[in-house]
Amino acid sequence: MSDKNYAQSIAGDLYHMIQSAQEQGVKVDTGFRNQALSSPSMTLTYLFLGKDDLLKVPALPPQVRNQIRRSNALATLELQTAKGKQTVGIHLIWASAKACSAIESEAEMLDGIQVQGLAAFTNQLKTVMRNDIPHTVDQQNPASAQE
Question: I need a labelling partner for 34 at 20 to 30 A (CA). Which of 21, 54, 79, 81 fits?
Answer without folding.
Answer: 81
